[in-house]
Amino acid sequence: MAGNTVSLFIQCLVDTMFPQVGEAMVTVFDRLGIPLAYPEGQTCCGQPAFNSGYRKEAAAAARHFIEIFESAETIVCPSGSCVHMVRHHYPELFPGDADMAARARAVAAKTFEMTEYLVDVLDVTDTMAEFTGTVTYHDSCHLSRGLGIALQPRILLKNIRGLELIEMQNSDTCCGFGGTFSINYPEISTAMVDEKIDNILATGADAVVGCDISCLMNIQGRLSRRGEKVKVLHVAEILAGSRGGNA
Amino acid sequence: MNPTQSSDYRTAAVAGIGSERLQKSLHGLQDRFGKGAMKLWAGMEDREMRSRVKDSRMRTLEHLDIILAELAKNVRARGGQVYFAETGQDAIDYTIEVAKKNEVKRVVKGKSMTSMEINIDPALENEGIEVVETDLGEYIIQLAGDKPSHIIAPCIHLDRNQIGRLFTDKLGIDYTNDPPALTLAARKALREKLLSADMGLTGCNLACAETGHISLVSNEGNIRMATTMPRVLVALMGMERVVATLAEHREALQLLTRGAALQKLSTYVSFLGGPAAEDDPDGPQEFHLVIIDNGRCKILADPEFREVLACIRCGACLNICPVYGKIGGHAYNSPYCGPIGAVITPLLDGINKHADLCKGETLCGACREICPVENDLPRMLAALRHKLAYGSDRWNTRQHNPAEAYAFSFWRLLVTNAFLYRSFIAIGRIFQWPFVKKNKMIKKMAGLASGWTAHRDLPPIAGRTFSELWKEKYRTTRPAGPAAKIEEEK
């Protein structure tokens, strides 16, 4: 399959703590024959600063991102909340600077979340992957409510050979991450993720899958502390077929 | 980030989370009303209604001075009296003056959040006036000396056993936890108060400028009695709670009762526009409408926050917020709790004072989705945080957390310079090893990050970051073509 070169926008948490998710993306796009690039100057999209109110700092990060990525044909990211930041907040970060705002809009227009890009743009619904086991899917807030992406990952998951998707209760209720919220208000955050985990466990699935590593890191961190055995996988890892559910 | 600053909110939140009874109530509430409202919106035949009402609310706010003048003119034409109160204290003073002039001994209230905002009850009681709540939930709260924890369901944090014991103690009835029996006991006690009260004191759900009416919704009928039995009626109204025309009123009311309680119409809707007249003998001899600013003009003047005044106070956002659903209403330390409270309370009562309300949410967006008038509360929470980040003269707000500001300045240096950024990660990778435990997770960290590891583990920085892996494994194997070209440009 030919098409635009995809420039990988690897979320900072994926880069530093979950590089296997980035590698899984490479596997998926390679399998589809999509040319890939990885602009090496990339850092963080600026969302932590923006959500904490530090808009000047967020704008600095956005400017850096725009400079790094604006020559790309298409930008694809394994994180809904980072795409939400670029798509919905970048254009607002440069009040009084029409040129930067226009550049921000241009970059925003070609930035996609991974499952969205596969299903909506490339019309790919089967990544030719295998997974033995049951999974349940967590709808991340910025992904599902902010970008309206809920169907795309499910379509892709249902086409994985050997995979059974079991929906959990309240899959679109927040996991309690919320960026610095999770550090500033750990008790509230934990109460929220505990409810999420109870809903995950109730499905009996082998793994919980999501499109945002930050939510998954929160869920995984609490599962680990509680000593639960459920696996936590980014959707890219499943689409790459890089792991088995009972492996 | 300084835990001592957060102590009140966090302490109250922890208490809420720890209460099994509250958790059960909140779960039931959200499961029924939160999900119910979402289902209702999804099934609405008139798909445009919510945005139409929002538009009309925003349009009204743009012309609020003219519309309030029209409302006042039409109320006065029917013999009602209208008073514009700049502050809560002005509203209290006016109400007390009316009460004194009419030798009022007892006031019956019909659930008003605005009355709690201005804290009028203690002021009336100081004047020797008895104040009795007539809304069942608020009556229970008053008897218990408690505070409401939900805009519509004020005693959601109490269960029927507690209410049974309270009624035994305060009303002298034999103990029962049977809701109909308890309701009957309250009804009997409240009837006596309602029949002998000199003054009714209510809020205002919506006012209609075109007709010069205020409307009040209830499901208990108490408001109808409180507004018609006593000689004098004072209605307290936040200045934004007005619609221009009867047509707009109809639609806003439809959304209000649906958002609040999934009702197409509440059991009672009272329309009041002045004292009793020859052609309309039911009603008080005196009708006073107190239109309260108390900080609203300041919100109105700020385009970033004006939208919050479009709120119709249905409380639906409480019924879906995952944070409210855990901590309950008391943590907000305000008559307005939940997502709407987290935005309006700091704006009315001080952003620094209520910094925890601005910061204590995940910005998940559920409140925006459920809001009948599509208010973007998460956007406004982020805007409030912006004020806290740098301080704001306009909002008389100082920088909330200089240490956090410093941390983000440092963060800015890193994210705008890839070399520094990657070096910082490499250094972190070395220093993290003493913390990494056998299961390859970090169990305990110091300083700011301790908030994470208090209840959760954290994966360490990987042995090879993706950017390192890309250089080592993937970059060289890329086919020539557009990808390579883009790489060269970097």
List the helices and strands and how they pair.
The complex is a heterodimer of chains A (247) and B (490).
Chain A: E1 6-8, H1 12-17, H2 19-31, E2 36-37, H3 47-51, H4 55-69, E3 74-77, H5 80-89, H6 98-109, E4 111-113, H7 114-121, E5 130-137, H8 141-147, H9 151-158, E6 161-165, H10 181-184, H11 186-203, E7 207-210, H12 213-226, E8 231-234, H13 235-239
Parallel strand pairs in A: 1-2, 1-3, 3-4, 5-6, 5-7, 7-8
Helix pairs in contact in A: 4-6, 5-6, 5-8, 7-9, 11-12
Chain B: H1 7-18, H2 20-42, H3 49-62, H4 64-77, E1 81-85, H5 88-101, E2 106-110, H6 113-117, H7 120-126, E3 130-133, H8 136-144, H9 160-171, H10 179-196, E4 199-202, E5 206-208, E6 213-218, H11 222-228, E7 232-238, E8 242-243, H12 246-261, E9 268-272, E10 286-292, H13 296-300, H14 324-327, H15 338-349, H16 355-359, H17 366-370, H18 377-390, H19 402-415, H20 418-431, H21 450-453, H22 466-474, H23 482-489
Helix pairs in contact in B: 3-12, 9-10, 15-18
Describe the structure.
Chain A contains 13 helices and eight strands. Chain A has 247 residues and is an alpha/beta fold. Chain A folds into two domains: 6-120, no CATH class; 125-239, Rossmann fold, CATH 3.40.50. Chain A has a four-stranded parallel sheet, sandwiched between helices. Residues 243-247 of chain A have low confidence and may be disordered. Chain B has 23 helices and ten strands. The longest helix of chain B is centred in the first third of the chain and has 23 residues, at 20-42. The model of chain B is unreliable at 1-6 (pLDDT under 50). The chains are: A alpha/beta (247), B alpha/beta (490). The interface between A and B is large, with 75 and 78 residues.
